[in-house]
Write a structure and sequence with these properties.
- The structure is a homodimer.
- Chain A is an alpha/beta fold and about 350 residues long.
- Helices cover about 25% and strands about 30% of the residues of chain A.
- Chain A has 2 domains: about 170 residues, Quinone Oxidoreductase, Chain A, domain 1, CATH 3.90.180.10; about 140 residues, NAD(P)-binding Rossmann-like Domain (Rossmann fold).
- Chains A and B meet through helix 3, helix 7, strand 16, strand 17 and helix 8 of A and helix 3, helix 7, strand 16, strand 17 and helix 8 of B.
- Strand 18 of chain A pairs antiparallel with strand 18 of chain B, so a sheet runs across the interface.
- Chains A, B: It catalyses: D-glucose + NAD(+) = D-glucono-1,5-lactone + NADH + H(+); D-glucose + NADP(+) = D-glucono-1,5-lactone + NADPH + H(+).
- Chains A, B: This is Glucose 1-dehydrogenase.
Chain lengths: ~350, ~350
């Protein structure tokens, strides 16, 4: 079968031939329909995130997949069921409390593998196998868009953690600031439709398709070159929720000062080591005196995938149409990974339902 | 009546004469029994925290009070009821959502007054008046220790906010690190008796009464001069909970790295502006990749006072005996504010029950 992989020492993905996998006991064989691409894939390709499976000279890419059960292999699925796989897997021969308790998404990096990212092959191949408990069934009619379930689930988890952190009091958020107008930022903005006022920060010039979407969603575009995060309170307002999806480390600090009292910042970006000066005293004091919270969030669990299905169903058609800017034939798969301001969300097509 | 106050321009408190207050409608008149002293009082005296009531040349100190209802004045209290007052009050003639929703503890500093701290006279006087809804009844037998209800309530709130922030998953904390061996740190350590392993950070030499208490509580004393917070994971372990009660801003950063995956840091200290260099990239990445949370917490609400009463009841007698190192006669009130390593928790006595 064909697979899209990054080979050790290379800087762009290629289509390779691999044997079709055989499902082990408890695993189903899935025929892949589409696999989405995101910033993490680019970091994996660049070598700044994740890593190859032990002993392998390549990593099959892709962690945002949707497929059809081809061989249930004794699992409770039926042939033809549309499924989305979760990403994290137990390291072979090892177990730990996170997997034992069914919350692999809470495991630290050294206690899990991530398919398509870190130490385990991804889903960008004609077929993949996966344990029954890692496959989330979705309605048939969502098959073409099922590759959006995983990225939506990332935001579902982050918002869940952010919201519970404010559940000790009567929190009534009205305003939100999304940091980043990449795919995750735009998806999140679309999910925050119950906020009265939303802002989305980017650094692009008009005309730009992400700015068009931001404004059509009723949000205010904040150009960080003119209005840095630290100035959002003065230029606009303090906000109840900050959702950071940039990986720009200064945002973890400036975003806190942009919060209203009792607000929460969800951090999702993964920056590299970078030392800089901060007014740590004012940061600390602001967090305390204004009862602010910061939650970091990575990955997501099966429950977040399930709520993501509902969220996906509710997204406006126009949004999905504009958001998914390109679905690439397998022969053109490498093009799906090219970063370009005109490109929002891309996916590679393997088969149709 | 007599009151302990700090006068503008002075650097130590004095006993002053003031007229006995008349309860307004909805307020009870309370005869003061004891009022505790803490680090915030010292900051108020030093002028680094809080401020005088508008137009007054002095501030009556004290926010950790216990008293007896002298005149119910139409409230539901009866003469002789033992009560503890909450600290925050609505600024006169103004209201806001925080007070409307009964969560004054979530108000930002500019939308509330704090008795004995910021803009409103405290409870360190023979009598004080307070609105019915700000007086929490406590059992008679707790009258001598009732001044501990307010400081315990501070930790009740911080732990409440920390715990709910981890309620999105099955969190089973086993280890905790309390930063600071001052009164709040020691009280908190005593409250963390369901943790398997606890650590308390300080910077004192033995023999020292706080270290004695730390060890009798079964905790490990961490001398920050030998083991900085950043080295706690290597020297001891990463911990599920960090409770910061020092006001030392670097702890807000180093404490995060001392957290185990999925851990939470509660920040309570109030440092001044202080710029320093941090590896903001690693901080941000650690928070995200390990699903960590940070919650700031200040003040407390009536519900936290109520749970503090239960907590106070459960504290071991030996702890309270050693912890309360001095109860001062009103004539010696200024001595209760002197910071000294031999002194743990002090209070000023006005009357007996």
């Amino acid at each position: 079968m064909r697979a899209v992989a990054i080979r050790r020492g290379e800087t762009s993905p290629t289509v390779v031939e691999k044997p079709r996998p055989e499902p082990a006991t408890g695993e189903a064989l899935v025929r892949t329909l589409r696999v989405g691409v995101d910033g993490t894939d680019r970091e994996v390709i660049d070598g700044t995130h994740g890593g190859y499976p032990e002993g392998d000279d390549h990593l099959v890419l892709g962690h945002e997949a949707v497929g059809v059960v081809e061989d249930p292999n004794g699992t409770s699925f039926e042939v033809g069921d549309v499924v989305v796989p979760t990403v994290r897997r137990r390291p072979e021969g090892r177990t730990n409390d996170y997997f034992e308790r069914g919350q692999a998404d809470m495991a630290p990096p050294d206690q899990c593998l991530e398919r398509g990212i870190s130490g385990a092959h991804g889903f960008m191949s004609d077929y993949f196998t996966s344990p029954e408990e890692t496959l989330v069934p979705i309605p048939e009619h969502l098959a073409p868009l099922g590759f959006l379930v995983e990225p939506i689930s990332i935001t579902e988890k982050a918002l869940h953690h952010a919201y519970v952190s404010r559940s000790a009091f009567d929190w009534r958020p009205e305003s939100a600031l999304v940091l980043g107008n990449g795919p995750l930022g735009l998806l999140t903005l679309a999910m925050l439709d119950d906020y009265e006022r939303t802002y989305c920060l980017g650094r692009r010039d008009r005309p730009d398709p992400s700015i068009d979407i931001i404004e059509r969603l009723g949000a205010t575009y904040v150009d960080s070159r003119r209005t840095p995060v630290a100035e959002v309170p003065e230029s606009h307002e303090t906000v109840d929720l900050v959702f950071e999806a940039t990986g720009y480390a200064r945002h973890a600090f400036d975003g806190i000062h942009a919060l209203a009292p009792g607000g929460v910042a969800a951090l999702l970006g993964v920056p590299e080591s970078w030392s800089f000066e901060v007014d740590g005293g004012s940061f600390h004091k602001d967090v305390v005196m204004n009862n602010k919270a910061i939650v970091g969030s990575v990955n997501s669990g099966a429950a977040h995938f399930e709520s993501a299905v509902d969220t996906l169903t509710d997204l406006p058609d126009w949004f999905v149409d504009e958001f998914v800017s390109g679905v690439y034939h397998l022969d053109d798969a490498p093009d799906a990974f090219v970063a370009d301001d005109a490109v929002l969300k891309t996916a590679v097509q393997f088969d149709t339902y």
